[in-house]
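Q: Joint fold for the lines below.
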Amino acid sequence: MIEITELRKKLERKKGQKIQIEDSLQNVRTKIKKNKRSLILHEKAREIVRIVGLKTQQQLQFHISNITSLALEAVFDNPYELMVEFVQRRNKTECDLYFKRNGSKVDPLTASGIGAVDVAAFALRIACWSMEQPKTRNTILLDEPFKHLKGKKENKKVLEMIKEVSNKLGIQIIMISDERIPREDTIEATDKLFEVKIKNGISNIITE
Amino acid sequence: MKTKQQLLDLKEKVMDAKTTVDKLTGQETVFLKQIKDSFDCDDIGSARRKSKTMIRKINNFNAQISESIEELEEKYDI
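A: Joint structure:
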C-alpha cells in the first residue's frame, strides 16, 4: 500500500515536471517565432543602412572626385584625375585616394609631381568644407598652399582657379604666398593684396 | 459528528490536494533547475533579485538609447 502511494506521488511529480517542461517549451517556441520576426526586420534594416551607406559613398566619391579633378583640369594641360575608392579594412570603411592618368593608377605622394598634390589637397579642403554640416565660416586661411607647384603658367592658372572657386562658392580665401607668381598676375587675381617686407628683422605690411 | 460520506469526500479532497502538491513539487524541481542553468540562481529569492537588477539595467539601456537618439536627431537636424 505504501509502495503504491509512493509510486503515485512520484508519478504526480513527474507529471508536474512534464507540465513545467511543456510550458518552457511553449515559451521557447514563442520566443523563436518572435526572434524570427525580429531577425527579418533587422535584416531589412541592415539592408537599408547598407544601401544608404553605399549611396552616401557614391555621392561623396562623386563630390570629392569631381571637384578635385576640375581643379586639376583648371591648372594642368594634361591633368590627373583624382579617384576615390572605399575599401573595407579591419572592419572599417576607409577611403583610398589616388591619381589616374591614361587609365593607369598613380600614387599621388610617390609617383606624381607634388604640385598636383598641392592642387588636389586644396580642392579636397574645399570639397570637405562644402560638405560640412553645420556649415562653418566661409573663410579659409592658406599658408603657401601651392609651394610645390612649378611653372609660371600653372601658378597663374591656380590663382584664376582660386578666384573662381571663391566667387562660385562664396568663400573668402586668405592666402600667404611668396614671389614665385609675377606681381601683376597676383594683383589681377586678388581682391586685396597685402605686401609684407622684412626690414631690420621687422615685418612691415604695405597695403595695395 | 460527520457522516461516513462526508469523511469520504474529505478524504478525496485531501488526496486531490496531495496530488496537486506533488505535481507542483515536480514543477518546482524543474523550475529550480532551469533558473540554476539559465541564471545561476539557487532559489527563487535570488532569481527575483537578479530579475530586478536585470530590469533596472534594461531600463538604463533604454534611457541611454533614447538619449543618444535625441542627441543624434538634434545634431543632424532630423
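Q: Anything notable?
A: Chain B touches chain A at residues 18-19, 22-31, 34, 76 (CB under 8 Å). DSSP finds two helices and no strands in chain B.
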